[in-house]
Specification:
heterodimer, A: alpha/beta, Rossmann fold, B: alpha/beta
Chain lengths: 176, 254
């Protein structure tokens, strides 16, 4: 089920707290690895952007949000990440799996379910995280964390930061 | 189990033999299940039941997203599955479970098994699908409308040309939609037949006259009307109580 990573390229993941930090942070990762430009960002499939614009008055639950996040990741893998890796490029997926796992954990979803949902996604060679640089929560379309914070009506950034702190302590990711 | 989850489960149990049932209408395209679902719903209302209907891929929130991608033919098997699972989850949490907790009958025009049959026919692992759709809320009754691939194909062709994903052209890669439909629906029916055995569907001969089928449904429903609430649905209620803010709104006396 898991998609295999072409041996020619390298996949890096970067989970950021603030959506506005995405591009400069991803460029920094690419610079560190002297890689060619290859960045895959959240909502490239436009699922969340379109849903935000619907104004139907119904909010998706955390479980629904995770399924949609997984659909977006699959889209990014198919159209951005895997083709770039096949060309021998370094690709930074920002955000990637850990953001989905983090949100699921914060919402009380079982780890086993999350693991199964994201079973298709290849692991990154190196995982990075970055704390937020802004005091103010961005709009829902700024990033997945902002989208979820707005949907659940709670600024989830401190909880995400705690989650990534814990991951870093366990050696599962590095600070950028 | 949280206090809210316990109260929700108790609320369903207390309804006893009068509780609302979840009745799923399953079968391939062209099996006539929508016709039967409408007849059955009208009959239930006539019998005095409070009835809610839920249809496949119909949530206000996710249906437009799926529709746009189907029109653009831009999704593959996994994305197709994940988006439909999101739509299903949203309807389960916002339409199905709230109605059942309030004691209503829920008639589902396609339910979980549509996803299992179609996605498995698209080559996805059943084990992964069951995880994606978990926690599962199992229907009380599944009416499975059984037809041959030929009948299904003829009935569809009588009114229109099958659409790209409906005919499975995304997986068969056959240019002719009718030819592709035949190949794809044969796989779907094969999956349905396997699921029918595992999950004990009530099989309806969908090639029989419409009124005969309807009378059979009435009889089978009356036979299985008074069944206890299956405790294995507790997990889905607990999950809903924990993560869906609207859960507390349907607790009696809240």
């Amino acid at each position: 089920m898991a998609t295999s990573v072409p041996s020619t390229g390298q996949l890096f993941s970067l989970d950021v707290i603030d959506g506005r930090d995405v591009v400069p942070a991803a460029k920094k990762v690419l610079k560190q690895h002297r890689g060619q430009n290859g960045i895959s960002t959240w909502d490239s499939s436009s699922i969340f952007f379109e849903m935000h614009g619907l104004e139907v008055g119904e909010h998706p639950s955390p479980r629904t949000l995770v399924l949609l996040y997984a659909a977006d990741i699959f889209f990014r893998l198919r159209w951005q990440i895997l083709p770039a890796l096949e060309q021998g490029k370094c690709v930074v997926a920002v955000p990637y799996l850990e953001t989905g796992f983090a949100f699921g954990a914060l919402a009380g979803l079982p780890k086993r379910w999350l693991t199964e949902v994201f079973r298709f996604a290849p692991k990154a060679a190196v995982s990075y995280r970055l704390n937020g640089s802004s005091a103010k929560l961005g709009p829902p379309t700024a990033g997945f964390i902002e989208f979820c914070s707005n949907t659940l009506n709670e600024d989830l950034r401190p909880k995400f930061a705690d989650y990534f702190d814990d991951l870093e302590r366990r050696g599962r990711c590095r600070s950028l | 189990m949280t206090d809210l989850a316990k109260r929700l489960c108790d609320q369903i149990r207390k309804q006893g033999k009068n509780r609302g049932l979840l009745i799923a209408f399953e079968g391939p395209d062209g099996s006539g299940k929508t016709t039967q679902r409408k007849l059955f719903k009208d009959w239930l209302i006539g019998e005095g039941y409070d009835v809610t209907t839920t249809k496949w891929n119909s949530s206000k929130l996710i249906k437009p997203i799926i529709k746009a991608r189907k029109n653009a033919r831009s999704i593959n098997q996994e994305e197709f599955c994940l988006l439909h699972a999101a739509d299903f989850r949203h309807r389960l949490e916002n339409e199905v479970i709230p109605a059942l907790v309030q004691g209503k009958m829920v008639v589902a025009d396609r339910f979980l098994f549509t996803a299992l049959a179609r996605d498995a026919a698209r080559g996805l692992e059943l084990d992964w699908l069951l995880h994606i759709y978990s926690p599962l809320y199992w229907p009380d009754i599944v009416f499975y409308f059984s037809v041959s691939p030929e009948t299904s194909g003829k009935r569809i062709a009588a009114t229109r040309s099958p659409k790209y994903y409906e005919s499975g052209q995304d997986v068969t890669r056959i240019d002719d939609p009718f030819q592709s439909y035949h190949q794809f629906i044969s796989r779907v029916i094969q999956e349905y037949e396997a699921l029918a055995v595992i999950f004990k569907f009530i099989k309806i001969d969908a090639e029989a006259p419409i009124y005969d089928q309807h009378i059979t449904l009435r009889r089978l429903f009356q036979k299985s009307r008074e069944r206890p609430w299956p405790e294995w649905n507790e997990e889905a209620i607990c999950d809903w109580a924990r993560t869906a803010p609207q859960a507390c709104e349907v607790v009696v006396g809240h």
